[in-house]
UniProtKB/TrEMBL annotation, chain A:
This is PRELI/MSF1 domain-containing protein. Transmembrane segments: none annotated. InterPro entries: PRELI/MSF1_dom (IPR006797), Slowmo/Ups (IPR037365). It comes from Botryobasidium botryosum (strain FD-172 SS1). Residues 2-179 form the PRELI/MSF1 domain. PANTHER family: MSF1/PX19 RELATED. GO terms for cellular component: mitochondrial intermembrane space. It comes from the Eukaryota. Coiled coil: none annotated.
Automatic annotation (TrEMBL), chain B:
GO terms for biological process: phospholipid translocation. Belongs to the TRIAP1/MDM35 family. Pfam families: UPF0203. Residues 79-99 are annotated as: Disordered. This is Mitochondrial distribution and morphology protein 35. GO terms for cellular component: cytosol; mitochondrial intermembrane space; nucleus. GO terms for molecular function: phosphatidic acid transfer activity. Keywords: Disulfide bond. The keyword Nucleotidyltransferase does not apply. InterPro entries: MDM35_apoptosis (IPR007918). It comes from Botryobasidium botryosum (strain FD-172 SS1). It comes from the Eukaryota.
Length: 186, 99
């Protein structure tokens, strides 16, 4: 079985602002499960201007205690995320997948930020999809895989909902700061 | 600013992040606003500027974080993930469906 998750909504900020905000998203109190963020590779394509960034995010309690006891490893997990900011198409995409526990399951997430079709200048459309799937582990382990999958899907949903609120706070603070800087310059 | 996975890299990371964030804020707007014919030149100039401003900070941080990634036992997982999904160019959910 595969668990699918998807949501889409608008942020009340221009795409430029939301894309700047991506680098400021963590830490935020609504996404306290993300404890570290590292850039491991970054390049700017001299022709297209696309900024590609590869990051590793450290998350705490990404696996339930019973899984750690059963399968080993740790409750903390690392995720690889690759993002592209494309100034030609005004699109920002992020793809991420778990590194830890990947022998047992995959959590594959895709996010797109682009100007909202109805209001390109001041709003940003956010689309997120995720596929959560346990790897085939044989008959005895099937129940374990299914429980792990269900647990992860639940947790992914909670984090996604909290993530929206957390990122909205971050964007608001950055916006206010920007207005203050502009006011000082006048 | 977020912490590094290794506390010893955090100061290097913060210095690099601050440089990148400042550069990035000045990057998108002029490139997006440029006429298509000028856009490539604009992007190239900005890419050179990034290298000049943040290149040395990046080198220091990268060296530290590469070591930290290895110490956490992530190197082989990362290598496998890169092999499975190189993700070298943007691919969009819309266009993927058409394939």
């Amino acid at each position: 079985m595969v668990h699918f998750f998807s949501q889409s909504f608008n942020y009340d900020h221009p795409w430029l602002h939301v894309t700047n905000g991506i680098w400021h998203k963590y830490p935020n109190s609504r996404s306290s499960h993300v404890v570290s963020v590292d850039v491991i590779d970054r390049s700017i394509d001299p022709h297209s201007g696309v900024v590609r960034t590869e990051r590793v995010l450290g998350c705490k309690q990404a696996a339930p205690g019973w899984v750690v006891k059963l399968l080993g490893g740790s409750e903390d997990a690392f995720v690889r995320e690759v993002s592209f900011v494309d100034p030609q198409t005004s699109r920002t995409t992020l793809i991420s997948e778990n590194l830890s526990l990947s022998q047992y399951m995959t959590v594959l997430e895709q996010i797109t930020y682009e100007p909202s079709p109805a209001d390109r200048a001041s709003r940003t459309q956010f689309r997120q999809t995720a596929e959560i799937q346990a790897r085939p582990m044989g008959l005895i382990w099937k129940a374990v895989g299914e429980r792990l999958e269900a647990w992860s899907a639940q947790r992914f949903g909670d984090n996604a909902r909290n993530g929206r609120e957390g990122f909205e706070n971050v964007l608001r603070v950055l916006w206010e700061r920007k207005l203050m800087v502009q006011a000082e310059e006048l | 600013m977020a912490e590094s996975l290794s506390p010893s890299c955090t100061p290097l990371k913060h210095a690099y992040d601050a440089c990148f964030n400042a550069w990035f804020e000045g990057y998108l707007e002029p490139v997006v606003a440029s006429a298509p014919a000028l856009r490539e030149r604009r992007a190239r100039e900005k890419a050179d500027e990034y290298e000049a401003r943040c290149g040395a900070l990046w080198k220091n941080y990268r060296e530290c974080v590469q070591k930290a990634v290895a110490e956490k036992g992530l190197s082989s997982m990362l290598e496998q993930a890169r092999k499975d999904k190189p993700l070298v160019e943007p691919s969009y959910p819309d266009s993927e469906k058409k394939d």
